[in-house]
Amino acid sequence: MREFAIDGVIFQVDDDVYDIAMSLRWHLNDYGYPQVNHTGFRLYSIALPPKQGYEVDHIDRNIRNCQRSNLRYATRAQNAQNQAPTSANSSGYKGVGWHTYRQKWRAYIKKDGKAIHLGMFPTAELAAKAYDHAAKQMFGEFAYLNFP
């Protein structure tokens, strides 16, 4: 594993990728991904070349870790399944929200664009555990878990 900086940000790559990566001119795009000028060619594409119909997923969700062992092909849906909750999430857990009318935490999971209700719970932690159970069953290795 080798490290190098792009705009002051440290990235990790495999030894066999390092020399190629160092020979190119990089900048960070608006999402923090290193890419060559304005071509759209990203750093992880050296380690895992583009494949028709797939995106590249960082297994540990760390876009600075571009080692081959941390990359895999994923469909857009699988890539979304591995995403952490957004900053707007009130509970701090993926798949958990406050139900004002019932005054309980609601667990839900989304599949194929549809929300599936998993139950109501007295604590956010219990709702998050219900989400994790369903996510493991539905998404397997691509599941983002609240309690890994």
Range of helix content: 10-25%
Total beta strand runs = 9
**Structural class by secondary-structure content:** alpha+beta
Question: Could you give the distance between the termini?
Answer: 25 Å
Mean pLDDT: 94
Total number of helices:
4
H-E order: EEHEEHEEHEEEH
Please explain how this structure is put together.
- The protein is of the alpha+beta class.
- The chain has helices spanning 15-22, 44-47, 76-81, 124-139, and strands spanning 2-6, 9-13, 26-28, 34-36, 55-58, 71-74, 96-99, 104-111, 114-121.
- A hairpin with a 4-residue loop joins strand 7 (96-99) and strand 8 (104-111).
- The model has no long low-confidence stretch (mean pLDDT 94).
Would you kindly provide a brief summary of this structure?
The chain has 4 helices and 9 strands, in the order E-E-H-E-E-H-E-E-H-E-E-E-H. It has helices at residues 15-22, 44-47, 76-81, 124-139; strands spanning 2-6, 9-13, 26-28, 34-36, 55-58, 71-74, 96-99, 104-111, 114-121. The protein is elongated and about 60 Å long.
Summarize the SSE layout with pairings.
Elements lengths: L1 E5 L2 E5 L1 H8 L3 E3 L5 E3 L7 H4 L7 E4 L12 E4 L1 H6 L14 E4 L4 E8 L2 E8 L2 H16 L9
Q: Which key terms come to mind for this protein?
A:
two-stranded antiparallel ribbon; three-stranded antiparallel sheet; 30% strand
